[in-house]
Amino acid sequence: MAHSHSSTGAVLFLCAMAAGAVLLLTGLAPTEPAREGVRLPQRKAAYTAQAGMSDGRRGPGQLGEAVPVQTEPPFERIRDFLSTADAAANSALDKGHLFIQLYGGVQALSDRTVLEDVDPQYSVVKLTDGTLTFVNAEPQDVTGHGRSVVRLSRALAGREIPLLYVQAPQKLQEDDPRLPTGVADYGNDYADQLLGVLAENDVPTLDLRKTLAAAGRDWSSFFFRTDHHWTPEAAFIAHQAIAEVLERDYGFPIPAEHTDPAAFTRTCLSDWFLGSQGKRVGPLYAGVDDMEIWEPNFATDFTYSIPIYDTERTGSFSEALLFPERVEEKDFFNGNPYTLYAGGDYPMARIYNLLAPERPRIMLLRDSYACVLTPFLALDCGELITVDLRYFHDDLLTYVDWLEPDLVIVMYTAGSVALDELFDFFPQDAPQPPYALDPPAVEKPALGTN
Amino acid sequence: MLFSSSIFLFAFLPAVLLGYYVVFRGMRRAQNLLLLAASLFFYAWGEPWFVLVMMASIAANYLFGLWVHTWKRRGRRLLLPVTAACVCNLGLLFVFKYLTFTLKNLALLGLNTPIPVIELPIGISFFTFQALSYVLDVAMGAAQVQRSPFGLGLYISLFPQLIAGPIVKYATVADEIQGRRETWADFSDGCCRFLVGLGKKVLLSNQLALVADAAWDTPAGSLSTAFAWLGSLCYTLQIYYDFSGYSDMAIGLGRMFGFHFLENFNWPYVSRSVTEFWRRWHISLSTWFRDYVYIPLGGSRRGKGKTLRNLFVVWLLTGVWHGANWTFLCWGLFYFLLLVLEKTTGQVAAWPRVLGWGWTFLMVNFGWVLFRADSLTACGAFLGAMFGQGGGPDLQAAYYLEQYWLVILLSVFFAFPIAPWLTRKVSAYFDQYARHVFPLWDGAYGLVLLLIFLAAAAFLVKGTYNPFIYFNF
């Protein structure tokens, strides 16, 4: 009775293969670009020409020489095509993200808690509480980054500008018992090394890991389930701690309502967000996240300007600092609701508090953890300037001299402390002369106008 | 092109099936030309330049075949054309596979000559042995000469078995090049066999490879005993699912187009002696060496001394065939020693079953350590770690066991013929209800195969680790 073959199996195989072929053909067909949550805004051609810039990440002084494009011999072109064809086919097949979901489902069934990626730093780890994260798997000496911060602090001190280093937390705590057997994370070790160097050199610091730990809540509740970032609620708690330091140590008056959660309306979008790790394994592997929208009940008026992209938003907190279009529709794979707050990672952005321009001007050197913090912090400032050194390649001190902030805050998550580019404060590695030339092409917009 | 790739599964194979069964239905010449063109395209996908090497091999062996046939018809001795064919084919193999190795070793002896950098055409050992099989089969009268260069080209380059075998002897498929008959039973059997092979390769072998590679990538001083054993076990399973999975896919694809290739694996890890293991592992290679080397040398019928010599030659060649490295050569000689031990003492065959199985599995496992190592030194270090000479904590072993326990368990389960045994038992039980049960079985098995296909496709589209061990041979 038993046969080694199955007519049903053959028919199903042919159907599945045909369906795959159709998916491949339709996937390879040119389509409208997908809506990307973290996509950087496109600059207008006219602005590019005026500013004399070639791309969105480099400043006027760092344009490279044009690279002549040489035509490859036909054989090489065939090779190039073949070497990329499989990846292109995979990408076309998974446009609907069906396969990634299936992949996550199979991995969940097979009880895997570490899903290796072709690039090991993007391997996804499932913790015992079912949440996902990346890990910083290699121990590293990052004291050099600490010395960079000290050097920046001294350079700023010469300009009578104080520096505060804020250590943002990360999803994993020190010796986190939620990690699978044999998996280690060194993110907190990086942070401890850096804070140690800063303490030796009397650079003021604020360790938000302690702040959150002292809140007496389950640590994992401060972070998204499928993403390594913290939630808006955790960022708000962090904002409370930062506001306290600003008021106590720097004498910046902070209205009480800015740090009172009761002064905010919170709206929860249920099952709305699939984070960075979740996108790599699909929602079947570890579920999805809610996204909470925090909006102040008091009057606000801001201008959020991203000069390098010629983008400006003016309006209330909810209109200028939140990007509601990022949560307009539920789109797990193409959308990034995390960028509801502050829009994402920009090389440099300036937020003007139109109702309180007399408040201090703060420059925040940041990574992606700052997204959810930025709108809250902007409430306390007359102007908040955010700089992301991963994308900002102009001379930082030139901008400091031009903008003359009252305080510079450096805030990185623990894992980011190992990233060289975030500590590249002195790209030319030489003392910077005081700013003496014309200011950069971007100008501060007149307050109160668009 | 890999069978386990999106391009093959969702573009190449559907297009060839469509052309074969719809566009050229009933047109044998056109179907053969389509298969030949598709096979050349399939080969060129990996490295376009090397398709010229294969075409040159086809052309040369076509002429050798005609030469042998003509001389045979005239009653002349075939020593010259057969020698010429052997020299040409093995010379081609030598240049691409062994020249660099030879020159490097001569340099160690003080003979310094420039060492060229030569890339190895994928599957050259397989198609060279197939080409040689054609000339030898014609010479030995096992098959008729192939008059059509396209027919011979199709035999040598047929994409299902082109890159990693099985090594199909010409006599096996000579009649099917023109006279095959495609049936739905064959086609559906081929589909199922292909899916089983795909599942073995993508869902088991590729996962086991992650564990094995991690063990081999660990410096010997940091490799714990537990992880060394786990790594060697995973490699033992990986190579089985990698190669037998490829053979299943090849046999299945062949059957989809009406070709019937012989089996290449027969549950090798149930073997109770090394002699039995080699009757069950890579059967097409063993058969090739038996028919074209061992028996022509006299086999075992010319006394103990010559039998030993013949065995030595065969196992030396088997080792060398797998690659230009001392590890492969030693691996071949390792089996020569084991087989001589078994044949001369008769010991293993007389042992209790479990003991015989344990001994064989252990020896095969050690053999794979030698096979997998990059050098004899690395092999020694790995074996040393297996016997407590390594170091490092056992955390890695615990990690990989925790992550891959299910894959390892399933791999062990499916390495033994438990599933076919269960199927036989169940079918015997339900035999009287066959009429009712068969459609259920057909549907359930079909669904399982579909799930395997979808899961494998998901892994491939995600772009997970996907090496093929036997491509290099």
**Whole-number mean pLDDT of chain B:** 89
* Number of β-strand runs of chain B: 0
Structural class of chain B: mainly alpha
Return the average pLDDT of chain A rounded to an integer: 83
Radius of gyration of chain B: 23 Å
Q: Please compute the radius of gyration of chain A using only Cα atoms.
A: 24 Å
> Largest interface here, residues on each chain?
A-B, 48 and 66 residues
Main beta-sheet strand count, sense and barrel state of chain B = none
- How many DSSP H or I helices of chain A? 13
Profile the largest sheet of chain A. Answer: 8 strands, mixed
Q: Count every beta strand of chain A, where a strand is a DSSP E run of 2 or more residues.
A: 13
- Helix/strand/pairing category of chain A: alpha/beta
Q: Trace the largest sheet of chain A across and list its strands.
A: 5-4-13-11-12-10-8-9
Task: Tell me what the structure shows.
The complex is a heterodimer of chains A (450) and B (473). Chain A is an alpha/beta fold. Chain A has a domain at 133-423. Helices cover 33% and strands 15% of the residues of chain A. In chain A, the strands form three sheets. Chain A has an eight-stranded mixed β-sheet with strand order 5-4-13-11-12-10-8-9, with helices on both faces. In chain A, strand 1 (114-115) and strand 2 form a beta hairpin. The longest helix of chain A has 22 residues, at 7-28. By secondary structure, chain B is an all-alpha fold. Among the domains of chain B are: 6-180, no CATH class; 187-272 and 351-401, no CATH class. Chain B has helices at 6-23, 28-46, 50-73, 79-108, 124-140, 149-157, 159-162, 170-179, 184-217, 225-256, 274-280, 283-294, 303-322, 326-345, 347-350, 353-372, 376-386, 395-415, 418-429, 434-462. In chain B, helix 3 packs parallel to helix 5, helix 9 runs antiparallel to helix 18 (395-415) and helix 10 (225-256) runs parallel beside helix 18.
